[in-house]
Structure formats: structure tokens, C-alpha cells
Specification:
Layout lengths: L5 H8 L12 E2 L1 H4 L53 H12 L5 E3 L8 H9 L4 E3 L3 E2 H6 L1 H7 L1 E2 L6 E6 L3 H11 L5 E6 L4 H6 L9 H14 L4 E6 L4 H14 L3 E5 L15 H10 L4 E4 L5 H11 L3 E4 L1 H5 L7 E2 L11 E7 H14 L4 H11 L1 H6 L1 H9 L5 H13 L5 E5 L2 H11 L2
Parallel strand pairs: 2-3, 2-11, 3-6, 4-6, 6-7, 7-8, 8-9, 9-10, 10-11
Antiparallel strand pairs: 1-5, 12-14, 13-14
Helix pairs in contact: 1-19, 4-14, 7-9, 9-10, 10-11, 12-19, 14-15, 14-18
């Protein structure tokens, strides 16, 4: 067995080693008293909307439903933490109770689902967000609830994120999940056209009284704290006023994406860490930084420069779910960087692990298809005919996907993930993260 390199040794001391996985997923079926019967995927394009599998569960295996009265409250009676300085103390006490996680999976529509979260947790993620859930549809559609939100015992700490523009609808949705998470999060940062059409996400930045009412509604009525994820305004002073308003409304944790809502292309626009630092200095609640996190050097630099209490990564994790365990893709390894070594892990290995998790925790096939494309993108560029074979497959099966990985390997394709063999970097990371 190879001796761990210095950086990996530090990461292992951070409890970032692979963790045992809990095998019984909790669906919101238990809350809605609905179940989806087992069936083979249909033989058409609609197949991508059904679960990858749906093993039957016995009555004993079904998670019990939780009433609001049974929900444990770390904050005490509903809304009490809003009064006085104690609300800041309670916000920090809750964050401390969770272990003050610093390495966090960002919310990604259709991409931060349970199997992917569990894969990232295996490789060092200390907390994770669900995909953005649409609050109105979540309330109205039992199938949407049971397919789009699943969790398990080991899936903690967990942020459940909703988009909304109606406080009452948001509260109804939040109450359905509060016993299964550590924060209910409000998406105030989605910059996509669908958010503009639906009037949610970053487009609520034009209606701050509505935003305030969303936060207050949850903060006054939930037994778990409310968090928010935002983008910055073009002017720093507007961003600071916005962040302070959210804190005053009852937000207990704020994640700041350091780009404006018009800066959609993360490769073209670098996130503004100075703006995140200014928000951190302004507020009295935990603040997380989002943007420009491609490898562990970025984690260290971001924590140092912003003073944030943790970092979120999104797009890079899709390509490399092992990012938080010190692995990086070849495009982040400088050609003459002598301290980078083959990490004895590649994206095909991660795809196989992800597929096994999907067999354990069923999700819609469209999510699986997306992850396979993201993780094997570098490999497909070498053997594009294999990618075309995947694209032509209207009905996915696990047998086909495992075979796809075998086919790439038989063609001699291997793009290794790298580790940075640098003792000084290990020391700096340990100092920043606090080991």
C-alpha cells in the first residue's frame, strides 16, 4: 500500500477520508404517504424523468413520518432566536454544533442530488446543499417531492434549498423538510432565464421587501435556522446593505457567490473575493464563500483572503468529486509542476463509485446521464465515438454505463487525477482550516 503523501495525510486528519454510507434513503414518500411502484424504464425519451431504480422496501424499512411537534429544535421555541444578541449566539452555536464545516457542496439544479452528495462526502465534503427545489411544485406534486428530495442518515449536515416568491408557499414547503435537514436555504442567487421567468433567485434582488418577507416568514416559524445564498450587486455598498438586511430579517448563515447576476460564465468572470470579505466583516453570522474554487490551493487562498467560515464548490466538483480530498484534474496541473503526482485515482473510478451509489439511492436517469458526461468529459474528447454512443442511447441501464467505462479503459484511455506533493502547502492548509 502506498504511503499517503503529506497533503493527503493532512486531509485524513481533517476526517476527509472515505466514510461508511448509510443504505436506506429517506424519500418524502414517508411524509406524503405515496409510493412509486417498481417498473422498468420506458423505452423512449421520457425515460430520463424516471428513477434509475426503485427497490421495494418493507414496512419496517420505511422511514417514519415526522410531525412538526416531533421536530427537535436546537433554537428552542419558534422564532425566539430573532430577539436580541442571542440570535447571533444561537446562529454560531448551531454552526459549531455541526462542526463548523468548511468544505461544502454547492447547490446545483439536477446535479447535487443524494448519490452525488454522498460521493463528494466520501472524498472530503463536510456539508452539502440539495439541488434547488421549486417550493410551489414541491407542495403540489407528490412525485416531484419523492423524486427530487431524498436523503439518508449519513447525509448531514444538509442544507435544503428552495426557490420561492411567496412567503406562505415557501413556509409550507420548508415545513415538509425541516426535520430532515440542518438549514432551510432560500435561493436568492440563480441568474438563469428560467429564474427571470419564474421570478425567483437573483431576480428578487429587485424586490428587497419581498426578500425580507421570505426570510422573516421562515425565521419566525421554523424549528431549524434559515440560510440564504446570494449574488453580489455591482456596487459593494448595495451588497453590504443587502447582506445586513438578510441578517436583520433572521438569516442565520449567508453564502455569498462573488459574481453579479449578469456574470453567468464562471470561466469568463472571476468571483470577487474582496466583496465576500467585506460581507464577512460586516455580518455577525457565519458567511460562506462561493466562486473560483477549483482545487485545494483555492480553498486555502479563499479562506485566507476572505476570512469566510467555509467554501462552496459547484462546477469543478461535477468534473472532480474528489476535489476536497486533494485531487485535481490535469487542466489545473502546470506542465512543469514537479510536485504534482498521479493520485492513483481517475474520473472513471469516480463514475463507477457514483453508479453504485445510484443503485443504492435511486434518482432520475437524467441526473445520472449529466454526471457521466461531466466526469468523463476529458475522456470523451480523446474517444468522441464513445460519447456519441452514450448520446444515442435513449434507454440507460447500469449495465450499459458500466460497459461504457470498460470500453474506455479497453481503448487505453486514462486521464489521471493528480495530487500536490508539497509539504509546505500541507502546513498552510492545516493552519487555515484549523487542524
Amino acid at each position: 500500500m502506498n504511503k499517503p503523501k503529506p497533503l493527503i495525510s493532512a486531509i485524513l486528519n481533517l476526517n476527509l477520508h472515505p466514510k461508511p454510507l448509510f443504505s436506506n434513503p429517506i424519500h418524502l414518500m414517508a411524509l406524503t404517504q405515496t409510493r412509486i411502484t417498481h417498473s422498468d424504464p420506458p423505452q423512449n425519451d421520457a425515460e430520463d424523468d424516471v428513477l434509475c431504480s426503485n427497490p421495494e422496501q418493507t414496512q419496517e424499512e420505511q422511514p417514519s413520518s415526522h410531525s412538526l411537534d416531533e421536530t427537535p429544535s436546537f433554537f428552542g421555541s419558534t422564532g425566539k432566536y430573532l430577539t436580541g444578541v442571542s440570535r447571533f449566539e444561537r446562529a454560531w452555536a448551531h454552526w459549531t454544533k455541526l462542526g463548523r464545516p468548511k468544505l461544502i457542496v454547492a447547490p446545483m439544479v439536477d446535479n447535487s442530488e443524494l448519490p452525488f452528495r454522498m460521493l463528494c462526502r466520501k472524498y472530503g465534503a463536510e456539508a452539502a446543499y440539495t439541488p434547488m427545489l421549486h417550493s410551489r411544485i414541491f407542495n403540489e406534486n407528490p412525485k416531484y417531492r419523492s423524486e427530487e428530495f431524498t436523503t439518508c442518515k449519513e447525509d448531514r449536515p444538509l442544507f435544503v434549498q428552495f426557490c420561492a416568491n411567496d412567503p406562505d408557499i415557501l413556509l409550507e414547503a420548508a415545513r415538509r423538510v425541516e426535520s430532515h435537514c440542518d438549514y432551510v436555504d432560500i435561493n436568492l442567487g440563480c441568474p438563469q432565464r428560467i429564474a427571470r421567468r419564474g421570478y425567483y433567485g437573483a431576480f428578487l434582488m429587485d424586490n428587497l421587501p419581498l426578500v425580507k418577507s421570505l426570510v422573516e416568514k421562515l425565521a419566525l416559524n421554523l424549528n431549524v435556522p434559515v440560510s440564504c445564498k446570494i449574488r453580489v450587486f455591482p456596487k459593494l455598498e448595495d451588497t453590504l446593505k443587502y447582506a445586513k438586511m438578510l441578517e436583520d430579517a433572521g438569516c442565520s448563515l449567508l453564502a455569498v457567490h462573488g459574481r453579479t447576476r449578469d456574470e453567468k460564465d464562471g470561466k469568463k468572470f472571476r468571483a470577487d473575493w474582496n466583496a465576500i470579505k467585506a460581507v464577512k466583516n460586516e455580518l455577525r453570522i457565519p458567511v460562506l464563500a462561493n466562486g473560483n474554487i477549483r482545487h485545494m490551493d483555492d480553498v486555502r487562498n479563499c479562506l485566507e483572503e476572505t476570512g469566510a467560515d467555509g467554501v462552496l464548490s459547484a462546477e469543478t466538483l461535477l468534473e472532480n468529486p474528489a476535489l476536497f480530498a486533494g485531487f485535481r484534474t490535469s487542466n489545473w496541473v502546470v506542465d512543469n509542476e514537479k510536485d504534482s503526482i498521479d493520485g492513483k485515482l481517475d474520473q472513471a473510478d469516480l463514475v463507477v463509485q457514483y453508479l453504485k451509489l445510484c443503485e443504492k439511492y435511486p434518482v432520475p436517469w437524467r441526473m445520472i446521464r449529466s454526471h457521466v458526461h461531466k466526469m468523463l468529459g476529458d475522456w470523451f474528447r480523446v474517444q468522441p465515438q464513445v460519447r456519441e454512443e452514450l448520446n444515442a442511447q435513449s434507454r440507460l441501464t447500469f449495465e450499459f454505463l458500466y460497459g461504457l467505462v470498460d470500453q474506455l479503459r479497453e481503448l487505453g484511455v486514462r486521464v489521471p487525477l493528480h495530487q500536490k506533493d508539497d509539504a509546505s502547502a500541507t502546513g498552510n492548509l492545516a493552519e487555515v482550516i484549523g487542524i
